Amino acid sequence: MRKITKRHLMTVLPLGVALAWSGAALAQETVKIGFIGSFASDAGGLTMRGAQIAIDELNEAGGVLGGKKIEMVAADDGEDVTEGIKAYEYLAETEKVQFIISGSIDDVSLGWLPRMTEYKIPTLDTWTSSILIIDKLVEDFETHKMYFMNVATDEALATLYVDFGKDVLAGQMGWKKTVILQEDTAFGAAINGLVTQLLAPEAGIEVVDTIVYDTATVDFSPIFSRAVDSGADFIYIIASVNSQVVSSQYVKLQVPLAMTGVNVAALGQEYWEDTGGAGGGISTLSPVPSVGFALDPQSQAFADKYVAKYGNERPKFPHFNGFNAYFGIKQAFAAAEEAGGFEVDKWVPAMEKQDIKLEKDGQMWMRYGFWQPGEKEERTGRTYPHNIRFDITPPYDDGAPSMVVVQWYENGEAKVVYPPKYATGEFQVPSWVKK
């Protein structure tokens, strides 16, 4: 795999003419695909590694599309919208990739999406959960049909949290009021809007205040003081950028309210090290598989292979998007085999039919399938074309839940605490918080 950094994007273009002949020869023997994401982030790195493991397996099994080898070219988006657009343009115009797998964050994916429709390159997102992108397919499917997202969208995420709020936070703990701490990002605004709309009417929990903070914030003391003064029973955090900072300060300041919500830093095994061991008590929604999640045999086999290859580097264990990339690459090439390549009008219908069902102990545990155009999800009553097929109605016998709730205990262990079918531990209130 070749990596193209932001610096390389400025310097490698003039080499195109000199390498034209060798590139043409290589193209006859390989299928070139692209990766877009941040090389420095866990999200980007995991997508790239998960995809590479799948590519290695396919190559070792004899290749694809008549024995061709897969080559992946990686372009760095730096978690920056402008750089993300440049990276997508590079993969399309210079590398002329046939398929792109993305580990971009929401804002970046929304930035390069118009380029995808221009170049008409089949693209799979493994990290972003932006409902705004799926809405593009709802509004204009033909223009955006080459896009797939194999992580549950914001709406499905919020639905699971409402259930957790109703069953555990309100039902078990008796909490009725919350204050939202939201980072100033597209991700934060989307989750906030959904949670605010759903918590009160469906879970009986009132949002008494919303505090929006800059992602560069380093002192959360005044923010936590405002949260405590709001009269809330608990804090709902929405943080995807530098969220280990707010997490560690919450513990060090012994904030006298439990804190749950969506905390991206807490999704990986490095969380405990990142917070200096000051991360206990915090719970977060996580797409599956998550830390503390019991894996089915096929997912475990991938995780074992990942640890053997990358276990001495960060991240030492795959997050959900590493699994998404691995299974997503397998599906993308299975569809390409059926379609005879990645020509959009043939590949899209073949990709829509891809459906990997993973069982554990004789029951459905995980599922990598896709909602079809026009197909309505029963609980929300809306369509999610090309989003992963999530199950948001217990007993989750039609696939995996959209998310699970993970909690880091004060001893450094991470456990799934909700829903009950997937729980490996019980929800706990931090020791310094009055019950």
Q: How many H/I helical runs?
A: 16
Major sheet details = 6 strands, parallel
N-to-C span: 52 Å
Spans where pLDDT lies below 50 across 5 or more residues: 9-27
How do the strands line up in the largest sheet? 1-3-2-4-5-6
- What is the mean pLDDT? 91
The count of DSSP E runs of length 2 or more, i.e. the number of strands, is 15
Q: What percentage of the residues does DSSP assign to strands (E)?
A: 15-25%
Radius of gyration: 21 Å
Gross morphology? globular
How would you sum up this structure, described in words?
The protein is α/β, with parallel strands linked by helices and 435 residues long. Helix content is 42%, strand content 18%. It has 16 helices and 15 strands. The protein has helices at residues 6-11, 15-18, 20-29, 42-60, 81-94, 106-119, 131-139, 141-144, 154-170, 186-203, 221-229, 243-252, 271-274, 297-310, 320-339, 344-352; strands spanning 2-4, 30-37, 69-76, 100-102, 123-125, 147-149, 177-183, 206-213, 234-239, 258-263, 283-286, 356-360, 363-368, 404-408, 414-418. The strands form four sheets. The protein has a six-stranded parallel β-sheet. Strands 8-7-9-10 form a four-stranded parallel β-sheet, sandwiched between helices. A hairpin with a 5-residue loop joins strand 14 (404-408) and strand 15. Helix 4 packs across helix 15 (320-339). The radius of gyration is 21 Å and the shape is globular. It starts with a strand and ends in a 17-residue tail after the last strand. Residues 9-27 have low confidence and may be disordered.
